[in-house]
């Protein structure tokens, strides 16, 4: 249950992203600075944490082993994840982006065949390609049903253009985030803790953010002070706290794709936190009874998914780290 609990807390801090990014857009801030400033601000905080834990040298050593892999999968896991989310905030409210983001529950499960699991058997250890976690997918479908019910009334008032511009970037992000995260777990092979891995991926993604910020300077100008402060709050809550909590949770269950999918499914509660945040901060009206019904279904789906993930593996086929 600890990985599930950490996943839920990470969802709480991740929800700040959807609310603050929408607030920045409503006040005229560009998605370019919303995305790049977050990662610039993350560096000093993460660097201080890793230095205090005396783990910087080991991180650098691991990064030097496969620098191309770090650049590639950090770009996928961070850049193709967060830049599209910020872009979508320019066209859709935070609650809709948070709702659409729950596609990552399915996305993470669909990625299973791209990875290998090491299985203990009586004859020894063998590597097998991951399979779709059928039980987990069924529970994920329940969660998605609740999300759909919550968003039905709101989505009916949105144009097709706004829907597509808000949906397609988030769809890309929903695959990029778990793919980059899992690939970096394979590259690091359990030698790095969550703080080291987040710092390493942040440093490896900086070339992209530098190029994006240069593009922003020439197209929209420098960011306003208010947007910089808001981006700093996102960097601390979502970039540092939420990401570290989520990576800690996924590290605990790496090698077990079913439990990994369950941890990723905890991110579904982001929509509840984002909805509450927009109601309090951006004066979003109270949800309809249909939306409340959807919330209860999400809660039920979360509980069911957590229960399903606790199913014990057979003694002759115990999953271990790949």
TrEMBL record:
The chain crosses the membrane at residues 32-51, 71-90, 96-116, 136-152, 158-177, 198-218, 230-249, 261-284, 290-308. It comes from the Bacteria. Keywords: Membrane, Transmembrane, Transmembrane helix. Pfam families: EmrE. The keyword Ligase does not apply. This is Membrane protein.
């Amino acid at each position: 249950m600890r990985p599930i609990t950490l996943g839920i807390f990470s969802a709480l801090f991740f929800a700040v992203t959807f609310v603050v990014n929408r607030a920045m857009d409503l006040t005229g801030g560009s998605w370019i600075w919303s995305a790049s400033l977050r990662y610039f601000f993350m560096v000093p905080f993460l660097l201080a944490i890793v230095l205090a834990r005396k783990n910087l040298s080991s991180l650098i050593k691991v990064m030097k082993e496969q620098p191309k892999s770090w650049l590639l999968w950090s770009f996928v896991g961070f850049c193709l994840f967060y830049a599209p989310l910020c872009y979508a905030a320019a066209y859709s409210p935070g609650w809709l982006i948070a709702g659409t983001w729950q596609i990552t529950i399915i996305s993470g499960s669909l990625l299973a065949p791209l990875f290998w699991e090491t299985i203990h058997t009586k004859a020894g250890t063998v590597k097998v390609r991951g399979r779709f976690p059928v039980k987990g997918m069924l529970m994920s479908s329940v969660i998605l049903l609740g999300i759909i019910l919550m968003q039905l009334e709101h989505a009916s008032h949105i144009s097709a253009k706004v829907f597509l511009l808000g949906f397609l970037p988030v769809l890309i992000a929903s695959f990029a985030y778990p793919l980059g995260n899992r690939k970096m777990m394979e590259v690091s092979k359990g030698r790095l803790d969550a703080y080291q891995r987040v710092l390493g991926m942040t440093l490896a993604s900086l070339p992209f953010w530098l190029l994006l910020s240069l593009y922003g300077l020439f197209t929209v100008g420098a960011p306003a002070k208010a947007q910089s402060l808001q981006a700093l709050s996102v960097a601390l809550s979502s970039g540092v706290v939420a990401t570290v909590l989520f990576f800690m949770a996924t590290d605990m269950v790496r090698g077990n794709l079913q439990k990994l999918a369950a941890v990723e499914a905890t991110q579904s509660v982001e929509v509840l936190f984002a909805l509450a945040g927009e109601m309090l901060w951006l004066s979003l009206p109270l949800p309809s009874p249909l939306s409340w019904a959807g919330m209860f279904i999400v809660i039920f789906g979360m509980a069911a998914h957590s229960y399903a993930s606790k199913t014990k593996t057979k003694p002759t086929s115990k999953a271990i780290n790949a």
